[in-house]
Design a protein that fits this description.
With 277 residues, this protein is α/β, with parallel strands linked by helices. The protein has six helices and 13 strands. α2 crosses α4.
């Protein structure tokens, strides 16, 4: 049984994108320039700093020790010929990410872990995310990787499996289909080899929160997908997410005295203002 009985999990901050998470003030860039967050980035930053980390996390963790897991896509990278980056210099993106995450590493007293995200954002074999995770002092795995592909973590008496990717859908009514499949696959694979099945299955990548619970012998098995911290990019406007509003937030995984459970905090961006003709 682990000493730390809870973990805060966030993902998809896409720092370095003009629609991603960005701190206030003049952000220094290579060659001496600066970037200043937009009004909507300021709103999202207020959620991140004031509402999520300063209010919700202390309340939901009961001010007890916790770990932090960032489940991929910390920075936006250079991808798909996009032009929405603050800077396509990856050192600039990592510089901003350190400003964002160094206080978080301090809050969790160094119990900080990084999962590798999508290579389009993080580089081949997540080389850029690996560099950033090392700079932030993330706890490495048994291979010495500071950013890992997945994570089997013991939270109290329960086992959690955390990795970035999961299937996506263009229809809201099917959002939980991939979650049920993911949990069933995890249980089947564990049973096949005589291993312990996870009580928590945690995924990201979609930027939309969803959760299912399945009764098991040890309490509810939970599969949860995290929201992100990025607003709608041109790729979202032309895809399945064009009818949705961005979701920001994160989850708590906790092992209680009698059961394990998930708590979530979700912020929703308002739709664009209506026009009067």
């Amino acid at each position: 049984m682990s000493d730390i009985l809870q973990a805060i999990v966030v993902s998809d901050t896409h720092i370095g994108c003009r629609l991603g998470l960005c701190p206030p003030g003049d952000i220094p860039l290579d060659d001496g320039g600066f970037y200043r967050q937009s009004d909507i980035q300021a709103k999202v930053w207020s959620w991140w700093e004031n509402d999520f980390w300063s209010q919700w996390v202390p309340t939901v963790t009961r001010r007890q020790p916790y770990a932090v897991v960032v489940n991929g896509d910390l920075t936006d990278g250079r991808h798909h010929g996009s032009t929405t980056q603050i800077s396509q210099n990856l050192s600039d993106q990592r510089k901003i990410a350190r400003i964002v995450f160094e206080p978080i590493v301090s809050k969790c007293k160094g119990h900080f872990y990084v999962i590798r995200g999508t290579e389009a954002h993080t580089g081949q074999s997540a080389e850029n995310e690996e560099t950033l995770a090392q700079e932030l002092g993330a706890i490495p795995n048994e291979l010495g990787q500071y950013a890992r592909w997945d994570m089997w973590v013991r939270i109290g008496l329960r086992l959690a499996h955390i990795t970035h990717h999961i299937g996506v859908t263009g229809s809201m009514q099917y959002e939980t289909t991939a979650l049920m499949k993911e949990f069933a696959d995890a249980c089947a694979e564990a049973g096949r080899w005589g291993l312990e099945a996870p009580s928590f299955v945690v995924r990201a990548h979609r930027h939309r929160h969803a959760e299912i619970k399945v009764p098991t012998a040890t309490g509810d098995g939970v599969c949860v997908v995290l929201p992100g911290w990025q607003l709608k990019t041109p790729f979202v406007w032309k895809g399945a997410g064009r009818n949705t509003n961005p979701q920001c937030g994160g989850v708590l995984l906790r092992a209680g005295d009698e059961e394990h459970f998930v708590r979530h905090k979700i912020f929703n961006i308002d739709r664009t203002p209506e026009v009067t003709l």
